[in-house]
Amino acid sequence: MKYVDEYRAPELARKLLASIEARSTRPVRFMEFCGGHTHAIFRHGLRQMLPPTVQLRSGPGCPVCVTSDADIDRAIATATLPGVILTTFGDMIKVPGSDGSLQTAKAEGADVRIVYSTLDALQIARDNPENEVVFLGIGFETTAPTVAASILEASATEVDNFRVLSLHKLTPPATCALLDAGEVRLDGIIGPGHVTTIIGSAAWEFLPRDYGVPCAVAGFEPLDILEAVSALVEMSEAGEPAVVNSYTRGVHPEGNRTAQGVMARVFEVADAEWRGLGRVPASGLAIRQAYAPFDAALAFPVKTGPAREHPGCRCGDVLRGTAEPTDCPLFGRACTPVRPVGPCMVSAEGACAAWYQYGGILV
Amino acid sequence: MCLAIPALIRTIDGNSGLVEIGGIERTVSLALTPEAQVGDYVLLHTGFAINVLDAEEAHETLRLLSELAEFIAEETGTGLAVEGTQGTG
Ligand code: SF4
Question: Fewest CB atoms within 10 A around its CB: which of A58, A259, A319, A337?
């Protein structure tokens, strides 16, 4: 496939690895913020190929994983209301809340449907005018504009039974929260490629400026990731932190202005609850007053009990980069992709699932 | 979740486009990429094109990567060791 295969060329990857090894003189730890990178890094075995001086650590960039138990409980409670059809992206359905998951709710009679796009959810609303169709809005800046666009479309075409439960989250404030906590020393950040397609590489300038941490924005093929690691090694060795765009074919400094505009029309910045990070100020997106009729949180103010995380699950630590999945006593024993205990084992982009699937345990 | 894949735009009809992804066709929204043209590659995410891929930049990245790898390999001799095919005599 064009724009994919040429970024997997093994010959070039070997040369890049050699160049990284030749230049890396001191131990460094880089965090890949994005779960998509975690998946790609494990799938292509990049951790094992890097020189021992270069360590990679997974971050909080898996929207399914960082959704809090309280929010999952709200989604389940909403799904079980009479007349509601709850639509969601695939991974979310298996994530355990305090008591069951959307999948168990579905087995007990709730109408929960997996969709590929918000536009599919909108179509379900059109096809079922007697029902209330709620779309579970999870995702970062990559996904939020698509959800905003579907709300604009619902508004323009007067679909009045379509609502969104917005649990969207913003990545720069979470990165700040992580660095402010100072629990794990990081020498560089591999910036999330598709988030940055929307927000622009300039949005990461605060990393070198305020934290002295270099950032290299990466695409998702092996050469993309190695190029970013190479740039981070170079900046670390030189002691000159900056933002490097290693994904120029997909990312511009200013990002996608149209998408930013659509997002800003529909959403306003709000505090959000992250698994692992807790409440992070100005790190979420709430639906603006002007689009209040589409806000499922207002239409269905459900009550849920206190949220309970599974005792022993270390997803929070894994998401903060303070623990590796294998540090969790449940990993591969009580917790496997077939019977996941925490969201990091459910999502294909969760670090626990990546370790389990690609034998990270051997690394 | 932030997965996005390259797709080729075949035709455009208002806000939507017919794209090809590895031989499969599907209709997607172009609401977030009004600048997209037939023949462009876009990044496709959950049914929406989220950006137009820059063909020149794509080419340039590959060229720079090759150059960088060659340069480092020559400077350090690592290329020879890694490839192991040329021998060092
Ligand atoms: S292995 Fe399972 S229980 Fe342990 S941190 Fe990962 S998801 Fe949670």
Answer: A337
- What dihedral angle (degrees, nearest 10) is formed by the CA atoms of A282, A287, A288, A294? -170
Give the 3-state secondary structure of residue A82.
coil
A63 touches B: beta carbon within 8 Å: yes
Superfamily of domain A1-357: HypD, alpha/beta domain 2 (3.40.50.11740)
Pairing state between β A215-218 and A188-192: parallel
Residue B40 lies in a domain: yes
Using a CB-CB cut-off of 8 Å, the residues of chain B touching A35 are: 1-2
Residue pair A47/A41 in contact (Cβ under 8 Å)? The answer is: yes
B27 lies in which domain range? 5-76
Q: What is the ipTM of this complex?
A: 0.91
Ligand 1 neighbours, Cβ below 6 Å, are A 313-315, 318, 325, 328, 330-331, 335, 341-342, 344-345, 352
| Segment A13-43, tens digit of pLDDT | 888 898 899 999 999 999 999 999 999 999 9
Confidence of residue B73 (pLDDT cuts 50, 70, 90): low
What pTM did the predictor assign?
Answer: 0.91
In a domain, B83, yes or no: no
How far apart are the C-alpha atoms of A209 and A119, rounded to whole Å?
39
Residues B54-70 pLDDT 10s: 877 777 777 777 776 66
**Residue ranges of domains in chain A:** 1-357
Cα–Cα distance for residue pair A190/A170, rounded to 1 Å: 16
B52 touches chain A (CB under 8 A): no
Q: Are A56 and A47 in contact (CB under 8 A)?
A: yes
In angstroms, the CA A92 to CA A103 distance is 9
Do A209 and A267 form a contact (C-beta atoms < 8 A)?
no
Query: For A314-345, what is each residue's pLDDT tens digit?
Result: 999 999 999 999 999 999 999 999 999 999 99
Domain CATH code at residue B40 = 2.30.30.140
CB neighbour class for B84 (10 Å; exposed up to 12, middle 13-18, buried from 19): exposed
Residue B42 belongs to a domain? yes
* Residue B86 pLDDT grade (very low, low, confident, very high; cuts 50, 70, 90): very low
Domains in chain B, number: 1
Give the model confidence (pLDDT) of A220-264 as tens digits: 999 999 999 999 999 999 999 999 999 999 999 999 999 999 999
Residue B61 within any structural domain of the chain? yes
